[in-house]
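Q: Can I see a sequence and its folded structure?
A: Here is a first one.
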Amino acid sequence: MRHLERENPASPDFQSGVSQPLKDRADTSQDVARLLSEYVLIRRAALSWYYFVLVGCTLGGLAIGWLAASSFRQPRAVSSPANAASGERVLLSGKIRFIDAGGMGHPDTGAVVIALPARQFPDSPVPIEGLRPWDRDSAQRQRNLETLAENGGAWTTVDEAGEFSLVLPMQGDYWVLVISKNLARPKSVTEQPNRGIAELDLSQLSRYFERPGDLIGPQEYYWSRQRVEVSGGRIHHVFDGSSWSDLDKIR
């Protein structure tokens, strides 16, 4: 018959086999307690709600800030009828005639009328092909007319009654160039430097056109600054060739 031996409290097995597990469990409990005291446990569902609340508060703060800033903005100027009218299209019209060597007056049919804004200049001078009284209609003319329009200008010809009309983008000051179709300047004038064009006229024309001397050529021309109001503008001009001793008339 076998007898169970009593464990010796002084033996290493007794000390390690009984007391050590109890100590580990105590240490683990203390670690858990310390972690619980330092951190807050939150359920995932609650964390999602906290996220939405944070986003909502942020957006709400931005909205309140935007509204507050808007309240301090300067009010926009209300457009008055006068301001609105300044952007309306306006009409420049008139009559162009010429007097021949015999003193007879005629409509200057086919003469060219070009209007350009006095305070606006193209980035580069406009080509002249297709814009002269003797030029035929062409694709080049259409391109150059589009360039004129982009720079606030307009081009037309005088009809058989000697009348013309131009629609301009807005009221204001315009330079108006009229080139006669039926009356040329005398050779004694066109043989001078710059084809007899006045230096001031040539300087101003050069800001708008390429080769203004070739644009006008030998023809009579009229270059003036005109004010066009909302109610419109009118030009009546007569080229007088009766005083030229060696008149050149294009037939």
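Q: Show me another, different protein.
A: A second, unrelated one:
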Amino acid sequence: MPYPFTLRPLPYSYEALCPEISDTTLHFHHDKHLQTYVDNLNKALADCAPCQRMTLEELLQNLDALPADKRIPVRNNGGGVYNHYLYFDCMAPRSGSRPSGALARAMDTAFGSYEDWKTRMKAAAVGQFGSGYAWLVCDSSRCVSVVQTANQDCPLSKGQYPLLCVDVWEHAYYLDYQNRRADYVDAWFSLINWPFVESRYDGCCK
């Protein structure tokens, strides 16, 4: 995705994730919040030709190499774009599936079982203080782990490859769940698009 960045459409209709996530939440989350990150990222890079030649992933993977005045805007707004795209892509209408193949084996090795991973992931999501994300990531050895990030920080900036994430900023769930973040996370598990996540793991570190 080259500069100038544009708002990518959702991979499903606004009503597709109901009742777990309402169309009203998706409209505000995608059309308003994400659009703001896209616009602010473009503004931040408007006077930086070298930055404009980098992909979104390259920007986030090389924050320390960017001009000093671009690092925080790219971390915040570039992270906001990348993190939201992955969050939306990792969901599908009531998939009801579980991981399979190489990813399932890696998760069993790391966590013991799928249910144990859910427990770890929920604890990370519910326990993230303030705004942020919980992630399933893999490293250069294709080992998987659960991590948290605050605000719009992205695991790419720490050398980790994101496989999926759950957004726990309040705007992701407050219209539907108010302060019940744990209920939102429970509902989110039923929406995970495991074939998409598996494809990311298959391409991890290649």
